[in-house]
Amino acid sequence: MAALYWNQRQDKPQEEERKRGMKALHVVGARPNFMKAAPVYRAMAQAGHEQTLVHTGQHYDALMSDVFFEALEIPAPDESLNVGSGSHAQQTAAIMSRFEPVLLKRRPDIVLVYGDVNSTVAAALVCAKLGVRLGHVEAGLRSFDRTMPEEINRLVTDQLADMLFTPSSDGDENLVREGVAREKIFLVGNVMIDTLVRFLPKAEQLFPELKKKLSVDRYGLVTLHRPSNVDEGAIFLPMLEVLSELSRELPLVFPVHPRTRQRWAAELEGAGPGLQMIEPLGYLEFLALQQHASVVITDSGGIQEETTYLGTPCLTLRENTERPITITHGTNLLIGRDWEKLRRGFYAALDGSRERKAPPPLWDGKAAERIAATLTK
Ligand code: UD1
């Protein structure tokens, strides 16, 4: 069995650790991790800490992974675990067994995990078993829906973490209610918004070219990938039909996630000319399209946040959200599977003038700096 861990050892003089800076190890694996880790990696580098980047390989297609490293200016991973796809148990187990030796070899002072994907919970479990200090970035979010795989990942990761960095105060409240000690919780703001703020000007430069390429002027933007929406025909096909109907009013650009394309390639092709299916987009291109869309229809978590910041109306095809602040402070409307509500929200977005609300507190582009400062302290 692996030796119990070095963080508990008394023989490492704290003074020495302070002088050399901290050794932080970041674990990323799936597309939504990359934009969260990028600003933290940058802020930690600026604070003079030594860093290792581990990519589990949960997402491996160039369009789901490599293009984000390039656009977000993240260095190539120091370690790639190449786990690929599989059932949840297979994927989680593969990450755990491949991550453990890396952790034993690299011996970081802290591991940072991001968001709520399988890579997050798998790395968190390995850290907990070895007694490695664990920080969770984007802690405390809850949909209160345990049929959602990400909710399980969030609950478990937060129970195991030593430092919990929350994006909004509802996260703090959820954690305290679950018995997490207040001194472990740090309200730092939203690191996704750090990345958005940094890259929006660059994204804007791409927009004219992109618009030409897609041959659109006014348009809506669609993304769908949640298993609860796309895995079963009884649910997905009526959804596609309504989208096809709406696309006769306003062209809808739909970058299709591999999960969705694999199941519904033929049906997607037959959905009518207004629904423009394209390959997954890079970070900058997608951000530019969000900024200028008349409306976004999605089941993503991060997109609810980005549209809130941008002031773009967002119609979320889910019954619940772990990001309620996007409703109270933002542009998000939960639609569930109420197609009348979707139509109403859609036409209201087309008719309405956009009011720019102030972004939620601490969504200011400086969340990662606050994380680095907390860790340095
Ligand atoms: C994962 C996350 C989800 C996140 C989403 C963003 C979990 C439980 N889910 O869902 O929270 O919102 O990423 O994209 O971690 N595939 C490819 N190429 C790839 C990656 C996946 O073709 O690079 C296909 C495979 O068939 C795979 C399927 O997509 O089985 C699903 O991938 P997986 O990583 O299991 O979950 P996502 O649906 O992407």
Short summary of the structure?
This protein has 377 residues and is α/β, with parallel strands linked by helices. The protein has 16 helices and 13 strands.
Description:
By secondary structure, this protein is an alpha/beta fold. The protein has 2 domains: 2-189 and 363-376, 3-Layer(aba) Sandwich (Rossmann fold); 199-350, Glycogen Phosphorylase B (Rossmann fold), CATH 3.40.50.2000. Helix content is 48%, strand content 14%. It has helices at 14-20, 31-46, 66-71, 88-106, 118-130, 149-160, 169-177, 191-214, 227-230, 233-246, 258-269, 283-292, 302-310, 325-328, 339-351, 367-376, and strands at residues 23-28, 50-55, 79-80, 110-114, 134-137, 163-166, 185-187, 220-223, 252-255, 275-278, 295-298, 314-316, 332-334. Helix 6 links the parallel strand 5 (134-137) and strand 6 (163-166). Helix 4 packs across helix 5 (118-130). The radius of gyration is 21 Å and the shape is globular. The structure holds uridine-diphosphate-N-acetylglucosamine.
Task: Describe this protein with a few key phrases.
377 residues; alpha/beta; Rossmann fold; 7-stranded parallel beta sheet; 6-stranded parallel beta sheet; 16 helices; 48% helix; binds uridine-diphosphate-N-acetylglucosamine
Bound molecules: uridine-diphosphate-N-acetylglucosamine
Q: What is the CATH superfamily of the largest domain?
A: Glycogen Phosphorylase B
Mean pLDDT: 94
Oligomer: single chain
Overall 3D geometry? Answer: globular
How far the N terminus sits from the C terminus, by CA atoms, comes to 33 Å
Largest sheet properties: 7 strands, parallel
CATH class call of the largest domain: Alpha Beta
Q: What's the number of extended β-strand segments?
A: 13
Proportion of beta-strand residues: 5-15%
**From the coordinates shown, what is the CATH architecture of the largest domain?**
3-Layer(aba) Sandwich
Number of domains: 2
- Which stretches are poorly predicted, pLDDT < 50 over at least 5 residues? none
- Structural class of the helix and strand makeup? alpha/beta
CATH topology of the largest domain: Rossmann fold
The ordered H/E elements are HEHEHEHEHEHEHEHEHHEHEHEHEHEHH
